[in-house]
UniProtKB/TrEMBL annotation:
GO terms for cellular component: cytoplasm. It comes from Dulcicalothrix desertica PCC 7102. GO terms for molecular function: N-acetyltransferase activity. Residues 30-172 form the N-acetyltransferase domain. Signal peptide: none annotated. PANTHER family: ACYL-COA N-ACYLTRANSFERASE, GCN5-RELATED N-ACETYLTRANSFERASE 2, CHLOROPLASTIC. The keyword Nucleotide-binding does not apply. Keywords: Acyltransferase, Transferase. This is N-acetyltransferase domain-containing protein. PROSITE patterns: GNAT. Pfam families: Acetyltransf_1. The keyword Aminoacyl-tRNA synthetase does not apply.
Length: 179
């Protein structure tokens, strides 16, 4: 659980309550959690459909695999309602990457997005790594306010290619997908 100063939260709308990541908003009860068991996959699918153009078609089955293989996984809830989500993958020491940062449109511009990213960055799986990356198409300004820099090195990508599945490998793989 995380309990830090919510320095970026606008005090007019949010007040600090340092009990296990609980934030009180005027008419809301916002809670940050790192427990994967707190992820409601149907609500997550809906949140992505509304607010994450790159993830709007994801199925609950595939999301559960992504969550099982990510750490940390941070949820933001208003009561029982899922209103924010972010996750990272990390080797714990050299490199980490943050993925799928989303705040529900009804809850934006109140500091929750920054708090969400800062919560990922402060997690033990991420806070010691040399470099933490993320990919963004048009939110550079948001991330720069948190401390990210634009990165001029070339990023390369390979999309899933089914012929790799049938390649003879010199290593015998054991498939553990999670979910
Ligand atoms: C990006 C997102 C998570 C931000 O959530 P949020 O709760 O509104 O963020 P915050 O309230 O913490 O905003 C922090 C600051 O960034 C600013 N900001 C937000 N988007 C920005 C942008 N594109 N360019 C510059 N500044 C931006 C806000 O104005 C705010 O500034 P302030 O603190 O000086 O007022 C939210 O807009 C979202 O879910 N967007 C859709 C999904 C998305 O694009 N995710 C990022 C994918 S990589």
């Amino acid at each position: 659980m995380f309990c830090e100063t919510f320095r970026r939260l606008k005090v007019s709308k949010l007040s600090k309550n340092c009990e296990f990541g609980i934030i009180k908003m005027s008419n809301a009860h916002i809670q940050f959690s790192e427990r994967k068991s707190d992820v409601d996959f149907e609500q997550l699918r809906e949140l992505f459909k509304i607010a994450a153009f790159w993830a709007s078609e994801r199925s609950t089955e595939d999301l559960s695999i992504a969550v099982a293989n990510s750490e940390p996984v941070i949820t933001v809830k208003d009561g029982e309602r899922l209103i924010g989500f972010a996750r990272a993958t990390s080797d714990g020491i050299y490199r980490a990457t943050i993925w799928d940062v989303v705040i529900h449109p009804d809850y934006r511009s109140q500091g929750l997005g920054s708090k969400l990213v800062e919560t990922v960055l402060s997690h033990p799986k991420v806070n010691r790594v040399e470099r933490t990356y993320l990919m963004t198409t048009h939110r550079q300004g948001f991330y720069e306010k948190i401390g990210f820099e634009r990165n001029s090195t070339t990023t390369m990508v390979i999309y899933n290619q089914s012929h790799f599945n049938s390649l003879q490998s010199s290593v015998q793989f054991h498939e553990v997908l999670g979910g």
